[in-house]
Prior knowledge:
Layout: H1 13-28, H2 38-53, H3 61-72
Amino acid sequence: MAPKTISVFDLSPTEKLQLVEDLWDDLAATPSEVPVHDWQKQELARRKANLMRQPASGLSWEEVQRRVRSRYGR
């Protein structure tokens, strides 16, 4: 009898989250190997230039957290 093949779609939500965390940790261990598209580099450069021109346009980490929590109730 052949062993049953399990798909990621058969995992429970908790198991799926753990798999995502494990994959993310693996990618984060070698960030230089993660591909970054040219359009992403251009967008980052645009945002950095905007922030350098208008430093007050940026948000503090506390403000970002407040906005996320107010939007998503956490």
